[in-house]
Design goal:
The protein is α/β, with parallel strands linked by helices. The chain has nine helices and 13 strands. The protein has a six-stranded mixed β-sheet with strand order 9-8-10-7-11-13, sandwiched between helices. It has a five-stranded mixed β-sheet with strand order 4-3-5-12-6, with helices on both faces. Helix 5 links the parallel strand 3 and strand 4. It holds the Pfam family LysR_substrate. This is LysR family transcriptional regulator. GO terms for molecular function: DNA binding; DNA-binding transcription factor activity. Belongs to the LysR transcriptional regulatory family.
């Protein structure tokens, strides 16, 4: 039994597909198959069983995987400590993120990570909506994702990292543009636009609207499309999270909502609980867990112009 076999086993136990695991490991499928068969022969018991075109862990395989992954994490930490002693932390982190963190929080986070660890870790960034991003994370397409909370995902860890306020926004000529704040109830009978149903943020906004008896056109994917609609129609009131996306529109008046918590839209760093991670990924998760954005860096209410 050697370390390479254990790394190969850990990857195959995650992906449960020989071709995909071999591709991730940069080895041929026959090489991976031979390594796993040798490991099983040494242990004297099968670790996988075939289920259609995929491989499934046996009960022994599941128990063995738990210990192997824990051991590999500790080995990887030891290697990383040695590399860091010589100033060598390197690797790639694949990140999926919703749009709302890409204008402020995420750039600051990456800037400050590089300031501490240098430029040797490379980041690949991918944009999407919360549910598809989480599903891609489960398929190992990303190491980490930044999304709203998606329910019924017990194998994933959701760590709250930043919140965005829900605000109303209007054109300067709108009758409520002069108000310092509004209640959601004040919007009854007005032309209100907000996020579409079926997304985490859309469902949260819908729950709040129903509580206050407010009807809205819930058809929009993001702050850019909402901002464009409000800018085009002076009668309209937009409801969206206060993110950098609204800043691309001139002369939009942002109005705080009185009866909604400041942390209405909570955004999480998401990662697999028990996955084997490189030291680069592990260091990024640890850094993000402790990270606090600079004071005043997240947008506040007012007029963007």
């Amino acid at each position: 039994m050697n370390l390479s076999q254990l790394y190969y086993f850990a990857k195959l136990s995650e992906m449960q597909h020989y071709a995909n695991a071999a591709k991730e490991l940069y080895i041929t499928q026959p090489s991976l198959s031979h390594a796993i068969k040798s490991l099983e022969a040494e242990l004297g018991a099968p670790l996988f069983e075939r289920e259609g075109r995929r491989m499934k862990l046996t009960p022994l395989g599941r128990a063995f995987a738990e210990h192997v992954k824990r051991g590999l994490r500790e080995i990887d930490k030891g290697v990383a400590l040695a590399q860091e002693y010589n100033g060598k932390l390197s690797g790639t982190v694949n990140i999926g993120a919703i749009y709302t963190v890409q204008g402020d929080y995420l750039p600051m986070l990456l800037r400050d990570y590089h300031a501490q660890y240098g430029q040797t870790v490379k980041f690949n960034l991918f944009q999407g909506f919360s549910t598809p991003l989480v599903e891609a994370l489960e398929r190992d397409e990303y190491d980490v994702a930044f999304t709203a909370k998606v329910p019924n995902k017990p194998d994933l860890c959701f760590e709250h990292v930043v919140s965005h306020q829900l605000v109303a926004f209007v054109a300067p000529s709108n009758p409520i543009a002069h108000l310092k704040s509004v209640s959601l109830g004040d919007l009854r009978g007005r032309l209100v636009y907000t996020y579409r149903r079926g997304t985490p943020i859309g469902e949260n906004v819908n729950d709040a609207l129903e509580e206050f008896g407010v009807s809205a056109l819930q058809e929009y994917e993001d702050e850019i499309s909402l901002g464009g609609m409000v800018q085009a129609d002076p009668r309209a009131v937009g409801l969206a999270t206060l993110s950098i996306g609204l800043k691309s529109f001139s002369d939009i008046v942002i109005i705080p909502i009185e009866d909604i918590p400041q942390d209405f839209h909570r955004i999480y760093m998401v990662y697999k609980r028990d996955a084997f991670r490189s030291r680069a990924v592990e260091s990024f998760i640890e850094f993000t867990s402790d990270y606090v954005p600079p004071k005043g860096a997240i947008p506040s209410t007012g007029t963007f112009s």
